[in-house]
Specification:
single chain, 4-stranded mixed sheet, elongated, 10 strands, mainly beta, 107 residues, 4-stranded antiparallel sheet, 52% strand
């Protein structure tokens, strides 16, 4: 049976200077997982850690990005210990790293 994955974030609304821990919880122990297997929209993933069925990575939002962001993993990019290709999973959240406009002061 193919393993599945659930993706969670420590923060659903990221601003400039913030980062989130993304947790990948698999239905069983997996092998062959690397940062190259993970996907990120609106930022980057780094510092992959973990083993067995639980891994974490750090999501850092891109400067000047505002909108829907996500972190995930593509189907078939990892396998369980029996060699079965795993399913896809992702988590969406919001990023706003755009600096506010300076107020207009009318004299």
């Amino acid at each position: 049976k193919a393993p599945s994955v659930t993706v969670a974030t420590s923060d659903a609304l990221l601003a400039a200077g913030e980062a989130a821990t993304i947790t990948f919880t698999f239905s069983e122990a997996v092998t062959g997982l690397s940062l190259a297997d993970l996907t990120a929209l609106g930022g980057t993933l780094s510092a992959l850690a973990g083993s067995g069925a639980v891994f974490t990575a750090t999501f850092t939002p891109a400067a000047g990005f505002s909108g829907a962001a996500s972190a995930g993993i593509a189907a078939g990019s990892y396998t369980d210990l029996a060699g079965n290709g795993g399913g896809a999973g992702s988590r969406g959240f919001t990023v706003d790293t755009v600096a506010p406009d300076a107020p207009l002061i009318l004299a």
